[in-house]
Amino acid sequence: MKRVDLIKEIAAEFELIANRLSETEVATVASVVELEPQHLAEIAKRVQKLTGPKNVKLKTVIDKSLLAGIIIRYGNSGSKLSLITLRLLNVVCEFKNY
């Protein structure tokens, strides 16, 4: 194992300890497109409300295999929330405007 690999492992372990001490939950948000900052802030608030931590830190992932909505993974067990926020009526209205 190279020293660089050890630094990565040490940094990851440090992040885990820092999150635990600051009562921060790390959640991964997967979506088809990049989400706007205001959407990420709303997601963080809702994850905080559902899971109860003092703070929530989001990591974003682009997942082209999703059809719509987002998937949020949180906690050590990898618990998962699937939220589909697509409203068909809004989509139909958008297409009518083109």
UniProtKB/TrEMBL annotation:
Q: Does the keyword Coiled coil apply?
A: no
Alphabetized GO MF terms: proton-transporting ATP synthase activity, rotational mechanism
Identify the Pfam families for this entry: OSCP (PF00213)
Keywords for this protein: ATP synthesis, Hydrogen ion transport, Ion transport, Membrane, Transport
Record's GO cellular component terms = membrane
Compartment(s) where it occurs, according to its Swiss-Prot or TrEMBL record: Membrane
Alphabetized PANTHER family for the sequence: ATP SYNTHASE DELTA CHAIN
Q: What is this protein called?
A: F-type H+-transporting ATPase subunit delta
Native source species: Salvia splendens (Scarlet sage)
